[in-house]
Design a protein that fits this description.
The protein is mainly alpha-helical. It is 62% helix and 0% strand. The chain has 2 helices and no strands. The longest helix has 29 residues. The protein is rod-shaped, with a radius of gyration of 19 Å. The termini are far apart.
Amino acid sequence: MLATCRPPAPRAGIGTLISFALPFAMITLAVWVLMFFVWYLLGIPLRPGTPVR
């Protein structure tokens, strides 16, 4: 990924890559946590034969 960042930003390094990827990772984490809570509140079983609560 760093090689694809180099042409538009020659001084790009690991810090640049992390600073670009971190917001997407945080948004993805928030969406997954939200989906888990919705799943839990709806009472959908985690697998067949196992209750959520």
